[in-house]
Prior knowledge:
Blueprint: E1 5-9, H1 14-18, H2 22-29, E2 30-31, E3 40-45, E4 51-55, E5 62-64, E6 79-85, E7 90-94, E8 97-101, E9 106-109, E10 116-120, E11 129-135, E12 143-145, E13 151-155, E14 164-170, E15 181-187, E16 193-194, E17 199-200, E18 204-211, E19 219-223, E20 230-234, E21 238-242, E22 249-252, E23 257-264, E24 273-274
Parallel strand pairs: 1-3
Antiparallel strand pairs: 2-21, 3-4, 4-11, 5-10, 6-9, 6-11, 7-8, 7-10, 9-12, 13-14, 14-15, 15-23, 16-22, 17-24, 18-21, 18-23, 19-20, 19-22
Amino acid sequence: xxxxxxxxxxxxxxxxxxxxxxxxxxxxxxxxxxxxxxxxxxxxxxxxxxxxxxxxxxxxxxxxxxxxxxxxxxxxxxxxxxxxxxxxxxxxxxxxxxxxxxxxxxxxxxxxxxxxxxxxxxxxxxxxxxxxxxxxxxxxxxxxxxxxxxxxxxxxxxxxxxxxxxxxxxxxxxxxxxxxxxxxxxxxxxxxxxxxxxxxxxxxxxxxxxxxxxxxxxxxxxxxxxxxxxxxxxxxxxxxxxxxxxxxxxxxxxxxxxxxxxxxxxxxxxxxxxxxxxxxx
Length: 281
């Protein structure tokens, strides 16, 4: 089994990030090129050892193999995985058992579950599997979650341009995991702000994958310490790595959706430190 294409991102201190320009911020925190035909692309981040990746099978199944930074013989040997389908209907095969994923469905796969293969039902409309992985300490059952079964929370308001729906796919009241907490947020028409007011969570790292954007649309993703904010301009199907010390919020040129995924010391969705807007700089 060939090793997927991969890159690594070293951990960056808040002091170092505060002095970076746009190019350096993008080089260290932006993940591009996730979905390419017949390819698996992975980024190994030294923030809670998260792996962020994408797979787009067109000419047949793609295998998900371990990469060198993991130091293991197979991908799930010491890890858990969440795979979220952003494309056409597809199949995730886990240890020989096939699981169908429609558009915006997700599957959680626990430690040691076996080999992973990713396929599309129709090569003309291929699946796009967004992959999030973190180290795991015990084996937990594989679970598929359809978009209609996710826990939904409606938040914000049109008056503040942040009316949005949060869909919790992997959370303590639903699927048990070792580290991962995963969900999707969709913004209502006319709303552009996500995660505002902002927050940080000292005990977890996070990644945002923005999608549902037109080719010429962008999201201005804000990061950095609350008193030293920076921004990264993000296009469709690009992800941003968010260290534990950083805020993570954004405003788009239109409404959009994003997948958020966290890993760290706990799985408590409410374990955050709010940042009042008036204290941000």
